[in-house]
Design a protein that fits this description.
Length: 203
């Protein structure tokens, strides 16, 4: 009996990751056009780095400078607003928990929340490390800010973010963004064509 494969992409991301931002701006439309779906998997990138012994590219100054220059070129090519956040690196744990809460609320809350947080981090220079900034972004974006803020204190939300992070490591992730299509792993915002090829091949 032939196994039925899924047209679903697991997208592991962190708002602190500029490459995750670029992938977020491009991949959803590509997946929608292909008739697929994305399963959003917020994870703590710092936790992944610690677990696998990795470090961010900005730990090497020359590499970090090149990466941001390269992302500026990529964003310009695709018409994506981009700015190197002066508050980088950001502590995004609250914002990531908020993404889980927003998805549980349902409706269009999750999509709007994702737009606000990624835009805040990588287009508007907002300091997502500051809970007051996160609250202000939600308030100004017309989201149920207090409901989300209350939910991020729930142990179940905290546990889900921790579980996502551990799951990413167990599956072989070492950075962000990381994608899985029917068990096949792809890493980086520059591998979206490969992600889509895997989705088409496995559908």
């Amino acid at each position: 009996m032939e196994t039925q494969l899924s047209k679903t992409i697991d997208f592991y991301y962190d708002f602190v990751s500029s490459a995750s931002y670029v992938a977020y701006k491009r991949l959803p439309e590509m997946v929608h056009n292909a008739g697929g779906t994305i399963r959003w998997k917020p994870m703590v990138l710092g936790g992944v780095f610690k677990a696998v012994g990795n470090a961010g590219p900005t730990s090497i100054a020359a590499k970090g400078n090149w990466m941001f220059d390269d992302l500026e070129r990529i964003c310009a090519r695709h018409g994506i607003d981009f700015s190197v956040n002066p508050n980088f690196p950001l502590n995004t744990v609250m914002a990531l928990r908020g993404a889980i809460a927003a998805e549980k609320i349902g409706g269009d809350v999750h999509g709007r929340y994702m737009d606000l947080m990624f835009k805040g981090a990588w287009a508007d220079d907002d300091d997502l490390s500051n809970p007051e900034v996160v609250m202000e972004l939600m308030d100004n974006g017309g989201l149920p800010a207090q409901e989300i803020a209350n939910m991020v204190q729930d142990q179940a939300i905290k546990d889900e973010l921790r579980a996502n992070t551990e799951e990413a490591v167990e599956r072989g992730a070492f950075g962000a963004p990381t994608f899985f299509v029917n068990g096949e792993m792809h890493w980086g915002q520059d591998r979206l064509d490969d992600v889509m090829s895997a989705l088409d091949r496995d559908s």
